[in-house]
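User: My notes are a mess, but here's the protein and 2-acetamido-2-deoxy-beta-D-glucopyranose's SMILES. Can you give me a structure?
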Amino acid sequence: MSFFSFSKLVRLVLLASSALGLAFNPRRFSLVTWNPSGENVGLRVFGTAPDRRGFLELNTQNKGLQNPLWWYASMRLFGTVTTAEESDFAAISSRDGQQIIVFFVRDDGALVYGQWTDATADMWALKTVGGGAAPAANSSLGAAMWAAGHMSVFYQDGSGSIFESEFANGTWARPRAVATASLGTDINAVAASNANGMLKAVYVQGGASIIEWLSSASSGWSNTTITPSPEISATSRFSVSSGRIHYTSADGGLAEITGRVGLWRPRGGKLSVSNNGPATDVASGLLLFDWVFVFYSTADNTLWNQVSFAFYGWQRPQAFWPSGVPWT
Ligand SMILES: *[C@@H]1O[C@H](CO)[C@@H](O)[C@H](O)[C@H]1NC(C)=O
Ligand SMILES: *[C@@H]1O[C@H](CO)[C@@H](O)[C@H](O)[C@H]1NC(C)=O
Ligand SMILES: *[C@@H]1O[C@H](CO)[C@@H](O)[C@H](O)[C@H]1NC(C)=O
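Assistant: No problem, the inputs look usable. Here's the predicted complex:
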């Protein structure tokens, strides 16, 4: 038996005009999970409101893991910042959930992030990615935390190049080009390791394939091709988490590839998604070894989640309406 953390039960969102029950615009969102095998586990979904004011957190905790999930209402963090119209969100956390970072593009085009700076007082700070980061306005964002105080955010410029901005030793490095991909590709990044140490892994779409780019301390970026079956949609949204890739398939559904960084097995499964239209975004995460959480949104602005529990397999999708009413 494991239960979600109580650590954020008392919320004092300073710097923010926080309110309960705000509508959540699920067109673009990101999620973090932490402590995949521990007792103190967490899951948060980040995005924005329909008016793009602030970024929001959907919070599920303290009622235990169950299906359907029990949700707190969305919380507005930074009511004063406006996100860019097509801004993506990339949320990352440390393994213990004590550090959470949410990247997004502000309406002036700056690549910024909210940093949860104080777990006890629940304070967030808004910061800018330095070093001259310049994503295209509608670029996807991918991010990963490599170690404490060491992270990168990946984005695309207007010519298709994928850049990495890396934060280490207290400063943002100048952006470095990693790869080139067709404009509008989704971007995902995850931290992994092999016998030689830490691996950076970045995923973009190339036609009918997902391209995996890997880089270690001793080698620069190199790629391999993953060709999903069922076929991936032309401009897929996809999500890479521990052991799973979830992607929008050409037939409008959601499908899964299992494996791990450097060794994916492309013949995956299909999830029993709703038929309310192709997914507009997807994000997934793992808790407790093998409890898989997939969140996706449909064209009618509904946020869905589908859960696979150990032994029981995939459960029916559950819809959340962005009604402003606390979800139970
Ligand atoms: C951070 O500083 C240490 C010590 O100077 C150095 O070894 C390391 O390479 C730096 N990390 C990055 C990512 O620049
Ligand atoms: C991104 O924005 C540019 C400029 O407005 C546009 O040409 C391009 O089609 C957009 N790409 C996507 C994937 O929306
Ligand atoms: C993979 O890397 C090779 C060598 O750098 C490059 O020529 C090729 O274009 C890359 N593939 C993709 C899909 O980006």
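The first strand starts at residue 3 and ends at 4.
User: Great, I'll file this with my notes.
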